[in-house]
Amino acid sequence: MSKTVDSEGRFHRDTDWQPGVFFGVLALVLLIGVAVLFGRFWIAGIFQKAFDRVPTQGTVHVFQFDYAYEPRHITWRVGDRVTIALRNMSDTHWHEMVIGRGYDTVPSAFGAIATQFKTDFWDGVPVRISNAHHVDNLVLNKARATFVGSKPNLATGGDFSPTLQPGGSINLTFTVPNKPGEWQYGCFVQQYMHYVAGMNGTITILPAK
Amino acid sequence: MSSVVSDMHGARSEHARVKRMLPPVVRGLLWALIGFLVMNTLVSEVFDRMPYHPFITRASVTLGWVAAVGGWILGVGAWEGAVKPYLGYPEEWVVPQDWRKYFMYSTDHKVIGLQYIFSSLGGFLIAGFAAMLMRLELMKGQMWIFNNPGAYLSTVGVHGTVMMFSVGTVALVGGFGNYFIPLMIGANSTSFPRMSGVSQWLVPAGIATVVISPVLGQWTTGWRGYEPLAGQDPAGILFYYLGVFALTTSSLLVAINLTATILFKRAPGLTWNRIPMYAWGILAVSLLNLIWLPEIQMTFVMALLNAVIPLPYFAQIGSPLTYMEMFWLFGHPEVYIIVVPAFALWQEILPVMGQKSLFARQWGIIGLVFVMILSGLVWAHHMFTNMRNSQMLPFSFFTEMISIPTGFAYLVSLGTMWRANLKLNTPTLYTLMSMFNFLIGGVTGVLLADPVVNLQVHDSFFVVAHFHYTVIGAMVFSWFAAFFYWFPKLSGRMYNEFWGKVGAIWVFIAFNMTFGQFFFLGLHGMNRWVPVYPSYLEPMNFEVSLFAFLLGLGFVFNFLHIAWMWNKGPVAKDNPWQAKTLEWQTASPPGEQNFDPIPKVISGFYDYRDQRLPIRNSPQKEPTS
Asked: How many CB pairs below 8 A link A and B?
């Protein structure tokens, strides 16, 4: 105990710290930790739904990670001229971006899983495709595409979907069609597992003013 | 005490402007946050700025984590307690002598030991909760708790990693080792108390890192971090490497400290012939840690660079198998890092509870040391599926050989019990249960060392049952034996014998019903690493899960019993078991000074033919306060 008193009376700091502050901060940190660990998508969704009602103008950068999109929510207004600048940030994985509504499903060991969207957002939409680098393949489906610069490798089958190699990018420029409401986007590669693992997001399209 | 308090109040009133200190843990969290934000911003926005990159990149989160851990360590007290004194400033770190000393940097080996025990207990409860989630998921053949397989695999990984690196490797070494080794060898402190004070705070940092890792992305490799699978995982795998790095660094520092303590701080007369069994166990484990932890740390650093830069060390153009060799080169000694202290504990507890001399003590030590040596020669039995038949033979041979020195631990324990008037109380019960469980774990280990069996049951629940029998069955049960055996020493009180036995029998039955059935699940075709399985396995899995929940509740019950009796139990005598080892020859709980004066050892500690104490001058006098 002799150590607790400084012989020269030099007390720079009162070490008699308060239990209340300790337990309060500890509880708060644990609570934040649990919330982030278990509810981060849910919390982020609520925040974006609540605060992201202003429609995005011009270019929106959509980043693909393993296995998530950033942002997870986009708001557009019908009639605006917008660009999706899609970029695959993964070092290892191929990723696509499909936009649609409803699901086609297939039964599996993990239960029924979504294989793609039932309704393709891009049906009949004129879209200008530019800045295509390291695009593995592009399925146009019923989109009316025009190309600027190098033309990516086209494929067929399924919804409109650009599939990017690691580090790949593509820009999709279009006028938001008159299809208001809630839309989803997602990545269904690798036996649909990216979508299952949480690689999806939502688009709110507001009606024209 | 009272005069000191009034002095402190006096000091406070004189210097009215003196600020009350933030709780060190809060300060540590604050500095961790600041460290992370500053370093992360510097890396992602200044030094490694890339167009369109997000705020947190793989490189920035790695370096940000390093800064955060630095801030945490300095904040909890290493700045005043270790860094400033090292630079020549006077030591200003004052530890209040109440419960608060356990929540700040300290250099007292008993405080550090209990901090390690709390940390591993926290890890045990978190990882145990993860195990409960896994068992909940496996109650049905389909996904129903987790909404994707990756989330399940991440949970398995968190469970395994936290259990191995913060409980298995730490509880009996950093925890009971730090507390009891100086007491058992008649020293008043460890060799490097400041380093030891710092190393403990790496454990909560490491646990938190691993637990929070799924926020960066799912990782699917389990506690082994297998490449090249890990190289394809999202960024969560980074926090696996970093968290394990913190935890293994902590264990490495413990190994350095306790090795030096056992070699150089023994009381006069405590010759090599008289070193207590637990100290031998800790010495063997510490040597294993000193040899193998740097090896696995370097492997993980390579894998980390693989994921951050990225490099192709373990990808197709590198050498994927190299990672597995490197991992199991450490991974099998790790098993003995976990179980050797448990063997030593049996040999510590049985002579005391039987009041009978330890049988064939030197063979017990030879057993511990040979287990330690052979453990480095068996690693490839984890990889029989990747080897030629001709390569399997030596590893199969050495693996089966290791059961011989392990057998010594049994023979010494059995010989000690032979015709002893064994006091069948809670610590004895846990010791016997631990021996029973490890027998099953060990015998199935010999089976698994046989390539023919191994290739059949590889990656099935048979293997899961085997290693849970060795880790929970032997180590965790011995951990509880240690808790109850040293309970009067740690708390100065006595647990309740009835509830202690109820708790022991509870976890024993639940454990065997859970993991005993794992063997049969495995033989019936239940695979590891899958959240879904064929429906014919559902009834058995459902029922195994019920026993698993019972086991979880049993552990919680035991901890509640310990916590309750720690505060409310009847006051115990200084040496309630009439033990001869040195830790019992001082007050319970020990004062700030363990021994005053340092005792002189005049004979071994395991000779129960008479009542003579093995030390000369009586250290029973009250420690100065």
From this structure: 132
